[in-house]
Design a protein that fits this description.
Blueprint (H helix, E strand, L loop, with lengths): L1 H23 L5 E10 L10 E4 L5 E3 L5 E7 L3 E5 L6 E4 L9 E6 L47 H4 L1 H9 L1 H22 L5 H8 L3 H14 L8 H17 L5
Helix pairs in contact: 5-6, 5-7
């Protein structure tokens, strides 16, 4: 009976000790992590996700297919975040040597929206504009029809409409107003991606350094108001490197 108990005890030790040693004895080693971030929803790559090393606070961004590469220690943990997904903390297996591509999964963010019942009539707001009067003028001759520049052939087939677009002072004013509204809306969206907090987050600069950098960056006039979130971040990182190489970082 005692011999049987001893055999069972030795068998249990053979399973427990290797795992205990692996979890508690890990030599820090510099590796080049190659990985891909995929969505738990459809297994597609998660593009332009933020990857931050929790120890160094440096990081990178996944490409359009969800792949990224990062130099780190095998004991480091990575914080991954992306719009529409839950933030996750990733750890590399202790025996990873950089020779293969690891796959990590992000869970989509689910928003529970309750049922909304709309009743009544929306109030009418007087904006101070006069009500338009009915007209027999064809639509192609009205000012609001010129959302796009008429083609050159319109000068032959519809000359009145063509010259009204180019010579009418009222039409020019309308185009300027539409352009200003579009620019304002785009800048409102743009300001969420380009601000001091984002610059400090991407570059690691202090607040005074970020203020000075943004003044210099704005003077370069390299960021169109129609830039996407990825283009904004890429431009900040690209010009921060130029800024640093020119010795302007203090």
């Amino acid at each position: 009976m005692n011999a049987l108990k001893n055999c069972i005890f030795i068998l249990l030790l053979s399973f427990v000790l290797p795992g205990f040693a692996q979890d508690n004895i890990i030599d820090p080693m510099l590796i080049r992590l190659q990985a891909k971030i995929i969505s738990a929803g459809d297994s597609s790559g998660v593009p332009y996700a933020n990857i931050i090393n929790n120890r160094t606070h440096s990081g990178t961004i996944t490409n359009a297919e969800g792949y990224f590469s990062l130099e780190m220690l095998n004991i480091d943990s990575l914080i991954v975040s992306s719009v529409g997904y839950q933030k996750a903390v990733l750890k590399v297996p202790y025996n990873y040597n950089g020779s293969s591509v690891l796959v990590f999964v992000l869970k989509p963010m689910n928003y529970n929206i309750g049922e909304v019942e709309v009743q009544g009539e929306a109030p009418r707001i007087n904006l101070g504009f006069e009500t338009g009067k009915p007209t027999d003028i064809p639509a192609e001759l009205r000012g609001d029809a010129f959302n796009e520049k008429p083609p050159v052939l319109a000068a032959l087939f519809n000359p009145i409409s063509f010259w009204q677009y180019h010579l009418s002072k009222r039409e020019k004013q309308k185009r300027e107003v539409r352009k200003a509204i579009a620019i304002e809306k785009n800048w409102e969206m743009h300001s969420k991606n380009y601000n001091k907090d984002m610059v400090m987050y991407l570059t690691g600069m202090t607040e005074p350094q970020a203020d000075t950098f943004m003044v210099w960056f704005n003077s370069q006039d390299v960021l169109p108001y129609t830039s996407t979130e990825y283009e904004v971040r890429a431009s900040i990182l690209e010009y921060f490197e130029i800024y640093r190489q020119q010795g302007k970082l203090r």
